[in-house]
Amino acid sequence: MSESNVSSRTSSRRREGAGRKPKKKQQPYGIALLVGVIAFGIYLSTISAKLTLFWILGCCFGVILQKSRFCFTASMRDPYLTGSTSVTRAVLIAFAVTTIGFTAIKYGYYSKGLPIPGQGYVVPISLATAVGALLFGIGMVIAGGCASGTLMRVGEGFTMQILSLIFFVIGSLWGAHDYGWWKLNFMLKGPTVFLPDLFGWFGAVAVQLLLIAGLYILADKWENRNQEQ
C-alpha cells in the first residue's frame, strides 16, 4: 500500500471524526439518578421499613439483571439463534439454587406441622399448561424479552420494550379478569402434581436436581458442538 493511500485514508478518517458530534457525558445523569434513588429510599423509610427493603432489593435486582443480561427469553432463544448456552446454564443454576432454598423453607414448615407456604401455586397440569406455555414463549420471542428482561430494558430506554410493557400490562389485566372462567373450564381438569407427595422431600429434590443437571450437560454439549462447526 502506497504512502499516498495511507495518508488519504487517515485524512478521511479525521474528517469523519471531526463531523461526529461529541458524546455527552453520562456521569452527571448517573449521579443525579443515584441521589434520587437514595432520597426516595429515605422517604419510603418514613412510611414503612418493608417498603424500603423492597425498594433496595428491586434496585439491586435491576442492576444485576442489566449487568448480567439475565433473561429467560435469551436462555431459550440463544441456543437456536447463536448456539450460545451461557444464559441457559445460568438459568439452570438459578433453578438449582432456588430448588434447594425453597425446599428447605417448605420442609421447615412441614416438619413443624405448620401450613406449607406457597401451596396455592401447586396447580393442576393439563393441556392448558402446555398451550399457555407455548403462547407465552412465542410472545416473549416476539417482544424480545420476558417480564424481567422487558422491565430491565425499559430502564435502559428501549422504545420497543416500552411498547411491550404496555401490552404486557393490558394482557395481564385481561387475563386476571377472565382467570376464573379459564380455571373452571380448563385448568382444573388436570391432575395436581407435588413432587414431595410422589418421591418424598429429599427424593423430590434429588429428582429435580438430576433433571437440571441433565439439562445443564446437554446445554454445554450443544454449545461445544456449535463452536466446533
From TrEMBL:
The chain crosses the membrane at residues 29-47, 53-70, 90-109, 121-146, 158-176, 198-219. InterPro entries: Sulf_transp_TsuA/YedE. Residues 1-24 are annotated as: Disordered. It holds the Pfam family Sulf_transp. Keywords: Membrane, Transmembrane, Transmembrane helix. Residues 1-10 have a biased composition (Low complexity). The keyword Heme does not apply. It comes from the Bacteria. This is Transporter. It comes from Geosporobacter ferrireducens. The lineage of its organism: Bacteria, Bacillati, Bacillota, Clostridia, Peptostreptococcales.
